[in-house]
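Predict the assembly for these two chains.
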Amino acid sequence: MFDALFELLFKYRPLVFDQGDFVFASPWSYLLLVAVLGAGAAVTLATYAQARGKSTPLDRGVLSALRVAALTVVVFCLFRPVLVLSSIVPQQNFLGVLIDDSRSMEIADRDDEPRRAFVDASFGTEESALRAALADRFALRFFRFSSATERLTDLGELGYAGLRTDLGQALDRARDELTGVPLSGLVVISDGADNSESVLTESLRGLGADGVPVYTVGLGREAFDRDIQLSRVETPPSVLQGTSMVVDVVIGQVGYAGDAITLQIEDEGRIVSTEAVTLPANGEAATARVRFTATEPGPRIFRFSVPPKVGEMVTQNNVRDVLVVVEDRREKILYFEGEPRFEVKFIRRAVADDENLQVVVLQRTADNKYLRLDVDDADDLLGGFPKTREELFQYRGLILGSVEANYFTPDQLRMIADFVNQRGGGFLMLGGRSAFAEGGYAGTPIADILPVVMDEPTLVDGEPVFIELMVSPTRAGETHAAMQVADTEEESGERWKNLPAVSSLNPISEIKPGATTLLTGTGAGGSDERIVLAFQRYGAGKTLAMPIQDSWMWQMHADIEPDDLTHELFWRRLLRWLVDGVPDQVVASVRRDRVEPDEPVELLTEVVDGAYLEMNNSRVNAEVTSPSGGFVEVELDWTTERDGEYEGLLTPSEEGLYEIRVEATSDDELVGSDMAYVFAAASDDEFFDSAMRAPLLRRIADETGGQFYTVDTVASLPEDIAYAGAGVTVVEELELWDMPALLFLLLALVGGEWGYRRLRGLA
Amino acid sequence: MKTRGIRRTVAAVAVLAGVTTLATAAGAGLGDDDAQRRRGRRREPPVSLDAPNTPYDGKFTFVRLQYGMEMDLGGFGGFRGRGLPPWAHDYPRAERNFMKILDEITGLTPFLGPTGGNILRLGDPELFKYPLAYMSEPGFWTMSDEELLTLRHYVEKGGFLIFDDFRGGHWYNFEEQMLRLLPEGRLVELEVSNPIFHSFFEIETLDFVQFYGRGGRPTFHGVYEDNDPTKRLLLIANYNNDIGEYWEYSDTGFTPIELSNEAYKLGVNYIIYSMTH
């Protein structure tokens, strides 16, 4: 609006004034200009000075001023004011036009027309207004872009089927293509809904350095009127089979405040959970916590969805698919118990039916006498607790019961700390008369890794102090997946409150910074608040402290029904969590587990030896099986940036699931192997966060010296580029004497003088 | 961790030494009556069954099950019974001695009070705080429906029962009560290869020679969870045997020391097994 009014008055738009330099093009000198103006003013003043009649001095002053002003305007025009600026030489410059070819261009959020309608209307034919205006001035080079960018010879090739928008690579590619030609700039026609992982900064810096301005044309609306979107679903990349997952789903919405919706989760077509959600105030997101069990092994696609509502502008963003690898394997946990006690029996019973957990028990029954249970080999742990890292690190979790610190050699204590820090294992210390401070652990490497602060041991007559504790979850515990002992969070919270008391000999009431308390306990009458379960991440692994000695009370107590599964659920979930995410010697992954066909994806593998030290001299091969059964091998090379990290590139060409088996060898000996998966398929990613992103488009323009346009302002684009100064240009003078504003000013001054005379009766 | 006890290769010889040492130590701490008893088996004064139980404190506490107190058998058991009801036979010296042995040779820290442990009625909810319980003379075992339910829950939840000191025709009552307790449970005779005979001591034979020479060949019976031999034993019954008797008199010289050794070895193994299976 402002620009249009400005152009009406001043003949050119503000951008032209910004680009140009103001000069008088008259061959006469400025002195002559001043002299003529001075002479004219002198004659005017002299004339009015001699005038008599009814006029007062004020009248004569006003009239003189008006006359001199009018005279000034005339003289100003006579001296040919012009704007001098560079303008492109027609047809001597190239202009890259980048058109968004992604699926979000199909969104009809403006006058019920899809965003691509602008492209059809403005560029569809050679006669289309915008295209013609640009073609008059520039040699046009069209590109289409989504996740990749390619030259476009015929705009009919636009299919708007791209599954990703990657502005950074589009700008890089177009700049590369047009290197060496006089380039006036790049025009990006897009909604700006970039959903790639690339960083724009480098691309923009390069364009700025090359002096290539980017003009962005934003399509679509910056905000929808009515829409529901599954903004975020966070699931772990892999879980153990049978794991009960608790997943937070963030539901964004506008226009449906207070509405009730049902969130549904399917495991490849089978509904595994539903959750009713009431949407909050407009613009606010709701977070739904859903729980379901991963029962089927292998790579599984879990679908999260809410049914479309009436009037939704985009419905494709109501569904999200996530790939979760459900591992069917036995996680090996070593439980070393220093004294015979019932905790061993009941923990073993709790996980006995869990086929994915193997709790190997090393029970010290007397000095230097051990009972070994569920070992793989008759020789395993024959000499007691592992004495080498290789022996200990074969386990993924370690539970220490009531065993005094001086049982261990200093190297074994260090080894346990390394088990967590370096190997990435899960470590749990249970309470007991020889655990924590009472077991002499203060000041040992194990004290460093534990999430709790140990004070001096509290002993009365040489014995630890016994206390019974009623346990309840903290807020973090109530929502933690491992603490769920009933079907819903509310029921779980209630169950915790009604569990019988357990006892402790280890008074611990403080956690370390960065640690989290999940369960607390209070003594009789609410006294003596103690930590019952706390955890922290430590190095590559995690540590848990559970300073109670008889969690079996949650199974045996008289108040517990025989068919109550609280104790079993608690221990299964706790131990699954303990070993969740614990790495093996070879860990394979993909940079993105979902790509579109023909989109390259990076394969990454980390390789360590038996002591979990990074190996840079491995031979790492990936055997890739395509959905149709095809087989290719990809060799992975050490990245040199990180020890033990290898990288390769895979380009899935078929739609479907690719299975990648990565094997690492060293000196012809197998170090280990791992599986990774990538799903190549069309996705609806383009419909998430798909409102026009004006700030991003504006930033691209600003940082490169271009300008941002909307559909309403884009008409001036050809002229703006013409005067932007990039490419082959000539100096051009734009006449200003005929600006309507000057005419209006002159008429106003002359009319003002006449009116004043009439008003004052001076005729 | 105690530093006393046995070496890694535990043999009956070592136990023998332990028992002998313990017996001496125990004898040294006894009163005149006990000292007299040590010199030979004779009728002993009635034992008080009214000693208060020790409250649960996290330590292992031996529990003797009390049943059928309403049954007045007068001088039941002749000189052996000492006027005690059958469930109390060998109390408290059996458990007191046994706990000392446990304390000496294992890593356990049991309750070592003068009563040797607690006495709990079958229906007592406190029973659930002690996942191992011992019953003497199950040939005389009776229980109400309420007690039956409590005991069944106890076993189902993970409790372990030791039946001892019964022989001959006592089996019929034991079997009948077992049928009430675990209608689906199947009593099976245990082989020496069963893990319960190897949980601490390596028991190589079950040819246990009965000191009294009556009641037939001692055998060991159990019921597996879900009748599945790969699962845990819910209980063990020492039929035609009386290991509690050997515990009781192990410090008197009245019973052969080899038999006392075997009785302790069985008892220790039962305890360790119940804590790990």
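The first strand of chain B starts at residue 63 and ends at 66. The two ends of chain B are 22 Å apart (CA to CA).
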